[in-house]
């Protein structure tokens, strides 16, 4: 794998999401003989992360915490 083109693992920035992304990265490295330079964790801020001034139920809609990650 070329050092210039790492595979990106998209995740939210919450502690749980980051822990899961690091676990996935470690397992991919072990299973495929990859180095840390081959896999990059990219934090993606979602609509649900940005809305801090009102209850999420008021915003409505599906995918408040997933849409941006799915679209990336």
Give me the secondary-structure topology.
Blueprint: E1 7-11, H1 15-32, E2 39-43, H2 47-50, H3 56-59, H4 67-71
Parallel strand pairs: 1-2
Oligomer: single chain
User: What is the count of helical runs?
Assistant: 4
* Gyration radius, in Å: 15 Å
Whole-number tally of structural domains: 1
CATH topology group: D-Maltodextrin-Binding Protein, domain 2
CATH top level is Alpha Beta
Strand percentage, roughly?
5-15%
Count of DSSP strands? 2
Order of helices and strands: EHEHHH
The chain-level structural class is alpha+beta
Describe this entry's structure for a reader:
This protein has 72 residues and is α+β, with helices and mostly antiparallel strands. It has a single domain (7-60), classed as Periplasmic binding protein-like II (D-Maltodextrin-Binding Protein, domain 2), CATH 3.40.190.10. The protein is built from four helices and two strands. The chain has a two-stranded parallel sheet. α1 links the parallel β1 and β2 (39-43). The protein starts with 6 loop residues before the first strand and ends with a helix. The model has no long low-confidence stretch (mean pLDDT 88).
């Amino acid at each position: 794998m070329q050092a210039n083109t790492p595979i990106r693992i998209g995740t939210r920035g919450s502690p749980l999401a980051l822990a899961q992304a690091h676990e996935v990265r470690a397992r991919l490295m072990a299973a495929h003989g990859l180095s840390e330079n081959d896999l990059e964790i990219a934090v993606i801020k979602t609509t649900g992360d940005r809305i801090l001034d009102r209850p999420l139920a008021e915003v409505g809609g599906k995918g408040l915490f997933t849409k941006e990650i799915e679209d990336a």
